[in-house]
Amino acid sequence: MIANSAGFESDATMTLTDRYATALVFACEAHRGHVRKGTAIPYVSHLLAVSGLVLEHGGDEDQAIAGLLHDCVEDVGVHLREPIRERFGADVLAIVDGLTDAVTQPKLPWRERKETYIEHLRTAPLPVLRVCAADKLHNLRCIRGDYRVHGPALWRRFNAGPADTCWYYSAVTDTLAAAGAPDGLVNELRDVLAACAGLRGLSRRRIGRGIPLGSGETGRRQRPMPLARPDRAFRAPSCAAMRAATAGDSAAISSIIAL
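Predicted structure:
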């Protein structure tokens, strides 16, 4: 038996076919000239990361291909649905459709669109849940890393502010967990969000191991936050509690992303 980095075991090593290489070229062409928000990083870097996470957490070739193509319809256009179906099959298109939260222009308001998408995830099949979790995990990793470099100025890139962003990723993580997304991906998402359990007062103290908060840093040395007991299961805060804790406190959320 061969185990991958996420602990999934198989009797044989997966071999990606020419379909995967074709999908990568398709994604590069569809997103030609696209970059990650507020950066000069080619957008395909995100697609490769998502596809890689899918493979690391038990996904098959169709799901890995969907990881490469998951933003094609939403960000490029519905005219790509038929080429995706023709070249990569109905199963890949079904996953891409399941990861698309807006196809109409103009788009619905951000909050309404996200709430509708979260409701959709409650009954989504495992392939959609796996690719969605990989997508959200890579996004959160990038937000956390970029906050360490740019501080609160990072939020100028996004349609949603820090409080709404924290609400969204927490709600998606809870929904993915309840719906049966792979534990490895859900646990990594929760690792990033775990600090949300101590939201109140975060803007008034340093969190973690000496990572600065950006604007508003007092310069005082603070005791590090105690680590969670390994024998105690993580329990994510409810969305309602998070909204109450973060209302009007952007600095608090920014400190969480700095972890």
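Summary: The longest strand covers residues 2-3.
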